[in-house]
Amino acid sequence: MRSDGRLLRGAVLAAVGAGLLAPIALGLWETLRPAFGVLPALGRTVWSLEPWAELAALPGVRTSLMLTLWTGIGSTVLSLLLALGAAAALHDRIGGGRGGRWLTPFLAIPHAAMAVGLAFVLAPSGWLARLLAEPLGWTRPPDLASVNDPWGLALMIGLMIKEIPFLLLVILAGLGQLPVRRHMAMGRALGYGRGIVWIKVIVPQLWPLIRLPVWVVLSYALSNVDMALVLGPSTPPVLAVAVMRWFTDPDLAMLLPASAGAILQAGVVLAGVALFGAAELAAARLGRCWLRRGGRGLSFEPGLLLARGLVLALLATGALAMLSLAVWSVAWRWSFPHVLPESWSAKPWQMAERGWREALGNTLVLAAASVAVSLALAVAWLEGEDRARRGRAGWAEALIYLPLLLPQIGFLYGLNVVFLRLGVGGTTLAVIWAQALFVFPYVMITLSDPWRALDPRLVNAAAALGASPLRRLWAVKLPVLLRPIATAAAIGVAVSVAQYLPTLFMGAGRVPTLTTEAVTLSSGADRRIVGVYATLQAALPFAAYGLAFLVPALLHRNRADLRGTA
Amino acid sequence: MRQTLLALAALALAPAPALADWQDTLDAARGQTVYFNAWGGDPRTNDFLAWVSEQTEALYGVTVSHVKLTDTAEAVTRVISERAAGVTEGGSVDLIWINGPNFLAMKEQDLLHGPFVADLPNARYLDLSDTSAASVDFTVPVEGMESPWRLAKFVFFHDSARVAAPPASMAAMVDWAAANPGRLTHPAPSNFMGATFLKQALVELAPDPAVLQAPVTDDAFAATVAPLWDWYDALRPNLWRGGATYPENESVQMQLLNDGEVDIAMAFDPAAAAAGIARGTLPESTRVFVPEGGTIGNISFVAIPFNAAHRAGAEVVANFLLDPATQAHMQNIEVLGSFSVLDPATLDADAQAAFDALPTSPALPSLADLGPTLLEPHPSWMTRLTEAWAVRYVE
User: Fold this and answer.
1) Which of A558, A566, B27, B289 holds its CA 20 to 30 A away from the CA of B212?
2) If contacts are CB pairs under 8 Å, which of residues 480-539 in chain A contact chain B?
3) What are the beta bridge partners of residue B69?
């Protein structure tokens, strides 16, 4: 039995090593070589620092770097503060389980779809401006950079609308593991304000539980391409977008500074994470003195209310953005300053039918395959841990998070070169593989806790009745864990549907999905067609979440204990 | 098209296509799927290419899969990364909708298959004399390495309900923008259309436009561009958003026109306004205008990469695009509205009648409205110009 467990662990380790680690390492390597002057296809074979000099001389590169740091770190810090504040203000009212439910739409909608909707809501001729136009007597939209603004504020709002719900969910899950009520009661009895108990007692215990997810948010905010393309400034854009443009420049020699830029992007993310680590250490040291001074901080309460208000305003804007996508997809003429379309039509759906049918088909195939692979691997990994009766080593946890912490643009170009050499470049297989790199971590993270929380007596009873390890997995664990497995699959679908860069780079553009089409079309003239794609793009994860809720409820309709939030 | 008319005499000198092998090409192409890499930001073009696929499938058993690009350079990068990885056969790109600088880059790097144009049966409808618009792409000789498919001519549109008198020349845009601050913009010059806006001004303002036809030199650049920068420095403060940001491409700008955020948009397609009205993406009152001295025009081409997996299919598609019936369908404003690249003198009565029967629209200019066609500068000018613009105006 022990040897069986070792075999399984070995197989999982090999699969993760060859399928997950090797592509990332090779991809990084193939990006590093041109970053230091080696690109045999262009006849460059000597290592040098020239690409870095070229990179530094590119116009706008410094502004791009500053913009990346400002929008990435700014939006992450603000999201974190607002999510913590809102969790403090709302925690009593929304328990872990139910709280998650109304956040689901915000988690499920892909970044690109949210960005497209938000671009319309915030634009000078957008929904908010149209609501103001009549009372203010505007006949022309104001000449105001409210999207694509040079400060990247619209981009930060977009990132915050997507990241705050994620952080809230993570925080609520973390709070479930802490005796919050007891600490709060104790703190209040000692005369501390609610907000200050939160900051001085609860956040320090919460932080280790949410540190990795915060880093993931930071890495995404520093390196995202799809949101920045739609909402961010364009001349110059944030670094990740600039690097993508250099990779696709007609002048092929640009591949060298572009690769250097990709490595720089990776460095920026590392530096960002290091900065957060340093801030954590500093806060721990300074915070101790502050704690000892014992201030009761009653003046803090309005801050919590403000955080709650801002979070609700942001989420309302996000909801408006989602609604606007659906409205545009059935509009015909809808010009400024009309609040609702002047004429409605199903024509946008008909005009683009051929396109969206193909994209929808591809998206479904990619999601099904990448989620199936990721789920199988995750179950094998967790079962391997069970059989070895060992917990997860720190390095294994880091391994799972690795693809989420590295910026995609840092290794995807190189990974494409690797895939081309293997002869799978531009195929659906390559895209599934690349998507699974990002789907697997989320599936794994979602599934780990419920898996460990499984009542061991069930498995022990099955073993006592003579069930083999395989039968215990198949007949006991998987059915009992159906609900968390379905949830993990739904999250996997949402992650797969949202992938932009991996699909674009690995598919050589030949595997159009709802996301790649929506982003491409968002730089086009027809907002109605974009509405069609973005609506479908958002609908798919919603449907997956719906199924994850319905399937266990139906299958377990006569099993009261399995219908809960296992 | 006028150029092709003028060069009629040269037609007799054009080489006779080697048609004997065409049947072999058709046989080889049957059953292939051609990955046509073309900019995907224009739904009309996308629909037209979907129609092309249906037709070639029915006629030749060749399916066209449109790989929608946000920028043509993506396809070039794909081919170079394939060569980097040693993929010299079975590449992922079969056919590219290509323009001057990308064509020059691929031609110089030997990344193209060909010459193949003379082998296409429908090449007989083209004027392939040395100086015709179909033989020179941005002053770079085509030499049969890319096949024409649509005519492009730079035009502006305005919403006549908002703007009665649009600026009459590029120079006049400065005063117009001063009178209407924030209502004029152009796509970012990193985009082809934004670069064309600058080139249009350069051709109009250059002391000696003839130097633009030769590769750029430092001296020629400094002397020729100085009036352009004076003009642009005067224009920029009154641009939309104070010139701090620009729309990504002409489609985004067209949406800004539709939203009423700006008053002027531009396109490389004289029928784009009429087509936009028909699709409900532009106000009914949109009209086309061109600067008095005429505008830049060129022909769009398709090219086949050296490692294309479906070379025969790609040639069949390139040939189908040149069919008079295809070109007439393409010129229909209800379809695409792009002007034909064929030489009218070579068309028979039936084909000519198909062109004459096409519908018209108040937003569709006649050829006479469009004024003279100005020659594209050598691509090195565009590269140099956009780089210099970025250095001057992007902090």
Assistant:
1) B289
2) 508-510, 512, 516-517, 519-521, 523-529
3) B39
